[in-house]
Amino acid sequence: MQKANDIYILSIESSCDDTSCAITKNTLLLSNIIAGQKVHEQYGGVIPELASRDHQKNIVPVVDAALKKANISLKQLSAIAVTRGPGLSGSLLVGLSFAKSLSLSLNIPLIEVNHMQGHILAHFIDEEGDGNQILHPSNSAKQKPAFPFLCLTVSGGHTQIVKITDYLSFELLAETEDDAVGEAFDKAAKILGLPYPGGPLIDRYAQKGDPGKYKFPTPYLKSYNYSFSGVKTAFLYFIQDQTKLNERFVNENLHDICASYQAHLIHYLLKNLIAIGKQTGINQIAIAGGVSANSQLRKEIISLEKKYNWKTFIPEFQYCTDNAAMIAITGYYKYLRKEFSGMEITPLARFNIA
């Protein structure tokens, strides 16, 4: 039953190659529809122009499906939230243009959302019947993060450690100086001859391999920032050198290669997170973003709870990859503060999380 003070947010996410629409009632998720794009698989990566075209085809059916699943009408909506960036400019433009039109036609506020802030706030999404709790592999009764907490945000385009002191207060403590860890996974998969997206395949093959079989270099930086370009190059040279000695090297050692490379990347990610955790004294630790779906990363961060007296928070798989639910929950907290946007806003391919 709808109450007078209930806030209904319809959100749109189109930053890369997934078209998504979600609807929330306050913090409760009513629907979260996602349409992926198969067209990019044959190219080994996302082609921006093709992504934009598919967003145009998918956005109306996706929004319609979200409304039907939520069982609400347009006139019940309180606001429209939309990803402004970061992401592909053409893809963002499709979602932003649709959101503006819907906001104008319904005469309700438009709320711009930072995609990376959305990944972090996915931890605060409520679902019917879940007891208002985020599921956790080792303990389904885990509560949501308490402020302040640290979040390792890892995806194909970003690798960051963020300090969150309130729902909309973010401080960037570390980031990659070149490539993101998700890109490091996908590039290695391409070198191994695996189809796109290759990160999940490396994770799958790694489960049957020896993570200590091969060693890779760790970049040395004076700050807590990350760098993955050198790791990718070292992996390429390693595969090339070994293939010269044995042309069947990859096929014969695929599981060990994947396990070793994955273990190296995860160790590197957690090394800096541990250091910042010690420096700040914050023991509430979360992960977010596409790479937070990696099974080894999830296991490793849970294993550190006792060692460092951490409380760790892991998003459900559906909130790891790009989705509109995380945009809706962020839009909800911005709505409470009346942080609305004008019709003049344009897509931001680069959008600082802070």
What is the CATH class name of the largest domain? Alpha Beta
Rg over alpha carbons:
21 Å
The CATH topology assignment of the largest domain is Nucleotidyltransferase, domain 5
Q: Quote the average pLDDT.
A: 92
Could you give the order of strands across the largest sheet?
3-2-1-4-5
Low-confidence stretches: 131-142
Structural class, please? alpha/beta
Helix content: 40-55%
State the major sheet.
Answer: 5 strands, mixed
How would you describe the overall organization of this protein?
The chain has 9 helices and 10 strands. It is an alpha/beta fold. The protein has 2 domains: 145 residues, ATPase, nucleotide binding domain (Nucleotidyltransferase, domain 5, 2-Layer Sandwich); 166 residues, ATPase, nucleotide binding domain (Nucleotidyltransferase, domain 5), CATH 3.30.420.40. The strands form 2 sheets. It has a 5-stranded mixed sheet, with helices on both faces. Helix 1 packs parallel to helix 2 and helix 7 runs parallel beside helix 8. The chain is globular and about 70 Å long.
